[in-house]
Structures are given as C-alpha cells and as structure tokens.
Amino acid sequence: AQKVTQAQTEISVVEKEDVTLDCVYETRDTTYYLFWYKQPPSGELVFLIRRNSFDEQNEISGRYSWNFQKSTSSFNFTITASQVVDSAVYFCALSEERGFNKFYFGSGTKLNVKP
Amino acid sequence: GAGVSQSPSNKVTEKGKDVELRCDPISGHTALYWYRQSLGQGLEFLIYFQGNSAPDKSGLPSDRFSAERTGGSVSTLTIQRTQQEDSAVYLCASSFEGRNTEAFFGQGTRLTVV
User: Fold this and answer.
1) A5, A104 in Cβ contact below 8 A?
2) Which residues of B touch A99 (CB under 8 A)?
3) Are the beta carbons of B91 and A99 separated by less than 8 Å?
4) What chain B residue is nearest to A43 in terms of C-alpha separation?
5) With contact defined as beta carbons under 8 Å apart, do A46 and B3 qualify?
6) pLDDT tier at B110 (50, 70, 90 boundaries)?
7) Which of B58, B55, B51, B59 is nearest to B97 (CA)?
C-alpha cells in the first residue's frame, strides 16, 4: 500500500493565485515525521519543512504554510500569492519510528505557475 | 562545498556494461541513502546506510545492484550488466542520525543506458 499519496499529479495556476498541494499518509506508528521537499527544474531536492506526529500546530513561513491534521492523516502545503519561481515538483515524505529514517516519498505534484 | 556531492552528473553507458556512481555525503552525517527517480516519477528507495549498522538493502531492485560505504563516508552504487530500464536519475542523500532529521540531497546522477 502506498504510504504517501499525492493525488494531484500536476497543477497549473496563474501568478499571485494561492495553491494547495495535498498529501495523505498512512502509518500505524504513533511516532512519525512528515516532510516536504521541492525539486526545481535543476533537479536537486530542497528541504522545506519537517513535522513530528506530536506537533499538530500549523506552520507559516513567508508565503508557505502547512496544515497538519492527524484526524485525516493529511499534511497539506499551501503557497500564497504564488510566483513563477515556485514552479517545481513538490514531494511529501514520511519517516516512521520503526523505519530508521527510511523516507517514503509520494509521487510528487508538479506545480506550474504562469506569469 | 558543504552539500552532498555526486559524480558523475551524467553517465551514458552501453547496455550490458557496469557503472559506478559515487556519493560524498555532508561531513558528519552518519546516515546515507540512495534513491532512484525515473522520468516523471517519484523517488524509489534503494538502500540506506546508518553508521556501522548493516545497511537496509530492501529497495535494491535486483542482484545487479549493490552499494558500499567505505569508512562511514563515501558511498558507491554499482550497477552490473546495465539494462535500459536502469535509466534514471540516481539521488544520494545524507542526514544526521535520528528519525527527526531531514535528509539533504545531492544533485543526482543521470544514467542513460543505450
């Protein structure tokens, strides 16, 4: 079974629009960690955020915000006022307590921000 | 530089040849991972090294794939008798020990088997 599901394969928005990237995860562990990575056209994955399962507070960093809801096993990522430079593939990932740092990645969501 | 370094950045090889991909992790990182990303796809876990523990090889797709990590630092991923389906970007990442630490990725090696 897929541990991390990113149902949106590709999203296109116009600059300045807000966009939310969905991530749904599956785990039986009570302790786990969730991550978001950005992969720009250059190819290198860039770490964006890490959350542990005991901290459900939403986080905001500039135009980025994350909504972690254990009740729905979701960890969604919102970009406010999107910019062309936000165009990239975004990956959600899960690391389990028992998994010793093995990251399970979703299939990624390609975001196209048009000027 | 201070990041994860992979070499070569691009490799074109003939079907049936062996290839070696190299990864230099961030200094001090005890954990090292190899992932594979096929065109337009997500990341497929291959192998994980953590300190002196036995590596987790559960993701290696066949016995043609092997990896080693010498001296707890540099790692080499070897693919023997390459096949066209091995064509992909091979990504290496490293992190500090512990399950609450993020992994830092290299720029990848793009392997093309012709």
Assistant:
1) no
2) 99
3) no
4) B107
5) no
6) very high
7) B51
Residue ranges of chain A with pLDDT lower than 70?
A: 1, 99-101
Task: For residue A78, report the phi and psi dihedrals to the nearest 5 degrees.
Answer: -115, 130
Q: What is the DSSP string of A46-84?
A: EEEEEEETT----EEETTEEEEEEGGGTEEEEEESS--G
Residue written as token pair 């809801």: A69
Phi–psi pair at A71, nearest 5 degrees:
-60, -30
**Rounded Cα distance, B41 and B57, in Å:** 21
Q: CA torsion, points A56, A62, A64, A69, in degrees to nearest 10? A: 10
Residues A97 and A36 sit within 8 Å (Cβ to Cβ) = no
User: pLDDT tens digits, residue range A60-75?
Assistant: 889 999 999 999 999 9
Do B48 and B32 meet the contact criterion of CB atoms below 8 Å apart? yes
C-alpha–C-alpha distance, residues A2 and A11, integer Å: 21
pLDDT number for residue B32: 93
Contact A101 B101 (CB under 8 A): yes
Higher pLDDT, B100 or B113: B113
Give yes or no for a contact between B98 and A31, defined as CB atoms under 8 angstroms apart. no
